[in-house]
Amino acid sequence: MRGVNLVLGAALFALGVVGVRASLAQWLLSLIFLLAFGAFVTALAPPRAFAVSRALDLGLGAALVVVWLVALGASIESWFAWWTFAFGVAFLIVGVGAAGIARETERLSRPSGPSHA
Question: What residues contact residue 65 under an 8 Å CB cut-off, 6+ apart?
Fold first, then answer.
């Protein structure tokens, strides 16, 4: 999960840089950079804090989808709005997938046979 969040955060940051180069609205770019920072913070969550990581990923995904809707309504460049949507969906997928990863990790970490104490 950490690696995925780092990659998504770096790519979202790169999208923000491209937006700066395209002279997009400052309010939109500020939100994109803030959410990219949030992705980096999510990557720093403790490895066993699956619930926290999941909640942060779902929150980032939902926030990016809201930003996408606002960007479409504000007639921002469509390519930028749709890339924002794509990142939102990616974070939602990662957040939903985190529950399965947590269950599988717990299952694999339990001892399989009787313990000899």
Answer: 85, 88, 89, 92
Q: Which domain holds residue 15?
A: 2-109
Q: What is the pLDDT of residues 54-87, one digit of tens each?
A: 889 999 999 999 999 999 999 999 999 999 999 9
Please give the full DSSP string across 35-102, using - where no structure is assigned.
HHHHHHHHHTS-TT-HHHHHHHHHHHHHHHHHHHHHHHHTT--HHHHHHHHHHHHHHHHHHHHHHHHH
> What's the structural domain count of the chain?
1
Q: Cα 83 vs. chain centroid, distance in angstroms?
A: 13
- Please, which residues have CB within 8 angstroms of residue 20's CB and are 6 or more apart in sequence? 29
Q: What is d(CA 101, CA 107) in angstroms, rounded to the nearest whole number?
A: 10
**Residue 91 to residue 7: CA distance in whole angstroms:** 11
Q: What is the pTM of this model?
A: 0.81
